[in-house]
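Human:
Focus on the backbone:
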Amino acid sequence: MSRLDDVLAATRAEGRPALVGYLPAGFPDKQTAIDAIVAMVDGGVDVVEIGLPYSDPVMDGPTIQKAADAALRHGFRVDDLFETVEAVAATGAPTLVMTYWNPVERLGVDRFSARMAEAGGAGLITPDLIPDEAEEWVAASDAHGLDRVFLVAPSSTDERIAMTAKASSGFLYATSVMGVTGARGATSDAAPRLVERVRGLSDLPVGIGLGVSNGDQAAEIGAFADLVIVGSALVGCLLDHPDDPVAGVAAVRLLAEDLRSGVERARTEQLR
C-alpha cells in the first residue's frame, strides 16, 4: 500500500471522494508556488498534483499554459520541481507530479524516478505516455515505489481502458471532455458514462478532471467519481493577483476550502 493508496482508502471509508488539487511548480516563483500548494493542502486538498512547466504543453488550456510560460521565463529548472515536491510532501499529502514525458526522458527515467522518491513524491501522472510505450517507466516506478497514473478519455475503447487500468496504480485519470484543460461553467455529461465504463472494467479508483471550478461542481462530480481533480481554477487564483502573491495564496486556500465543502456535500448526498 502506497501513501496514495492509504489516503484513497481513508476517503473511501469516510464515504466521500478525494479532492486532488493541481498547481505548477515555479509559478509565479518557486517559493510562492510552494506556499500556494501548502495553502491548498491546508484548505482541504487530499492529494497534490504538481505540474512540471513545459515549453510545448499540447494538452493544457490557456490558463495553465500562461502559468507554465511565466515559470519558464522566470528561470524554472527541474531541480526546482524536486525541491517543491520535497516541501509539499512534508505536509503528509501524497504528492504526484503531472509531466509530459520529454523532460523525464531528458533527465533519464530511472534518475528522475530516484529523485522523485528521494523527495518523498508519490508518483507521476503522464498525459502523453501510453502504457504500450511505458516499459522503462513501469520498471523504474516499480523499483522506486512510485505510482503510475495513466489517462483515459471518452473516446477510449473498452479494450484500451482495461489495458490502461491494468498498467496504472493509485488511480485512473479519466478526462471527462475531449480537449485541453480549463475551468468550465458546467461539468461534462460524458463524465458519469465514462466512470461507469471504467468501473465495469477495473476496480481501480477513478478520478475525474478537466472542468471543475467550484464547490458545487465538486459536489456534482463527487457524487459518482472517486477523486475530484481541480487545476485551472486554482491556477487562476494566482493569475488573478499578479502583483500580490500573498493575496493569490490566500485565494488558493479559499477556493480549496470551497472545493472541500463540495466533496463533503457529495458524502452527505451519498448518505441520504
The radius of gyration is 17 Å. Residues 3-271 form a domain with the TIM Barrel fold (CATH 3.20.20.70). The first helix runs from residue 3 to 13.
